[in-house]
Amino acid sequence: MNTNRESTEVMSGEAKMRKRIINIALVLAVVALMVFLAFHVKIKRPVQEVAVLKTIGMTCGSCAGKIEKALMRLPGTAGVEVDVEGGWVLVGYQSTSAKPDTFAAAVNNEGFRSWLMEKMPIAEFKKVAGRDFGSKAVKSSYCGNGGCGSNRN
């Protein structure tokens, strides 16, 4: 009879070990997911003000992408809208941490000609534009006139 009791104890010991291994694997998976999300998920910063830049030399969606990437690297930038056809770049930013005068310089460094036309609080932007910032899609088209940023001065 001792052999039955011993085999039951061994089986329950094996079952406990399996549960421990499964629990450890689940904890490791959750930790790995949290680390991944910490490095890959960006929390959207609130837009407090909008800077309006007039920009010359944009010809396509790739130009818009270059400009957006350059501006999003600047501290305090919350979002960028680019109107390639109209030659406008709108930068949503946090007024406490961004310097709007640096926006045009960042665009100019990408090979375009840009200057700050106006700054306004987000409430004024909503009133003037009749929409929320970030709700406009960037239009893409082919690259012409020698390519993106080819208008360096």
From TrEMBL:
SUPFAM superfamilies: HMA, heavy metal-associated domain
Domain HMA span(s) in chain numbering: 49-115
An annotated Gene Ontology molecular function: metal ion binding
One family name in Pfam for this protein: HMA
Transmembrane segments: 21-41
Swiss-Prot/TrEMBL keywords: Membrane, Transmembrane, Transmembrane helix
InterPro entries: HMA_dom, HMA_dom_sf
Name of this protein: Heavy metal transport/detoxification domain protein
Origin species: Geotalea daltonii (strain DSM 22248 / JCM 15807 / FRC-32) (Geobacter daltonii)
Lineage: Bacteria, Pseudomonadati, Thermodesulfobacteriota, Desulfuromonadia, Geobacterales
